[in-house]
Design brief:
About 25% of the residues lie in helices and about 20% in strands. It has one domain: Rossmann fold (3-Layer(aba) Sandwich), CATH 3.40.50. The mean pLDDT is about 95. It is globular and about 45 Å long. α1 crosses α5. The chain is of the alpha/beta class. α4 links the parallel β4 and β5.
Length: about 160
């Protein structure tokens, strides 16, 4: 088993595409974080304050249920964790994922996709879902990065 995991949540497929590139470049295992109840297009309507994603992001304590907890994240040293940026931070399902495993002493490197938003307070928000010995690093927004650029970024970590 690789000591590196690429775990990702992808609502539209964009993050999934980038996660696969990262996993291949890192020689890492790949795991999709899936909600127990998949998101529909209506759920992702950010213009509708009553849509599922809008309601979840308005309540930072909300934790969507996972479809499974088969990532075995505690078995890895390094985890690349990917997601789309919603309202300048990670979707709350990422907190659910982090809180589902003992990640003490692990290094988590974030990557995200976005049409324009930056990481904002993402690291600070996610840090509350892991132990004090877990290191969370703000990585890269990879939305518009070409595969070779992503591969070179991953190589910087000397995994």
């Amino acid at each position: 088993m690789s000591k590196t995991l690429v775990a990702y949540f992808s609502a539209s497929g964009v993050t999934a595409e980038k996660a696969k590139i990262i996993a291949e470049a890192a020689g890492a295992d790949l795991y999709e974080i899936r909600p127990a109840v998949p998101y529909t297009q209506e759920d992702l309507d950010f213009k509708n304050k009553q849509s599922r994603s809008s309601v979840e992001m308005a309540d930072k304590s909300f934790r969507p249920e996972l479809a499974d907890k088969d990532a075995h994240a505690e078995d890895y040293d390094t985890i690349f964790l990917g997601f789309p940026i919603w309202w300048y931070m990670a979707p709350t399902i990422i907190n659910t994922f982090l809180e589902s495993y003992d990640l003490s002493g692990k290094t988590i490197i974030l990557f995200a996709t976005s049409d324009g938003s930056r990481f904002g307070n993402t690291v600070k928000f996610l840090q509350g879902s892991v132990s004090d010995t877990t290191v969370i690093k703000e990585g890269k927004l990879v939305t518009k990065m070409q595969p070779l650029v992503i591969e070179n970024w991953v190589k910087e970590f000397d995994l």
